[in-house]
Design brief:
Elements: H1 6-36, E1 43-47, E2 50-55, E3 76-79, E4 82-84, E5 86-88, E6 94-96, H2 107-118
Length: 133
């Protein structure tokens, strides 16, 4: 008769718990993302006590009054009502003035990283050089 050893039992239990943990984390991430983004792509959530709001780009290209230079092809990202200046790289990743040397896959990931980096500080207004007031 084959008996299972204690090592085999512990290994099987550890594997099962790991699988359950991964499944739970994946389900939580999916639930968080579905709550954060609306069908239009807009986001309004509280992350670490800070309110993140993302309004999708208007799609009008570089014609408009956004930041004086007109970047209406970029979403508007706000943290506690203050605008976070974001930029899109050629490879499709995103950067901000807060995390200028770290790239992110999407504006929401970028905004959450900015909240962590700010550590409770208020986001300072962005004043582009050479822009008109």
């Amino acid at each position: 008769m084959n008996k299972i050893t204690r090592r085999q039992a512990l290994g099987t239990t550890a594997g099962a718990l790991t699988a359950l943990g991964i499944a739970g984390a994946t389900a939580h991430a999916a639930a968080t993302d579905s709550r954060a983004a609306s069908p239009s792509g807009a986001v309004d959530e509280v992350y670490q006590g800070r309110r993140i709001q993302i309004t999708p780009a208007s799609g009008a290209g570089h014609h408009g009054g956004h930041h004086g230079g007109g970047h209406s092809d970029l979403p508007t990202v706000r943290i506690d009502g203050r605008e976070l200046h974001v930029m899109r790289n050629a490879d499709g990743t995103w950067i901000s003035l807060v995390n200028h040397y770290e790239t992110f896959a999407d504006p929401l990931s970028l905004a959450r990283a900015a909240v962590r980096e700010l550590q409770g500080a208020v986001l300072a207004p962005f004043a582009p050089m050479g822009g008109t007031a």
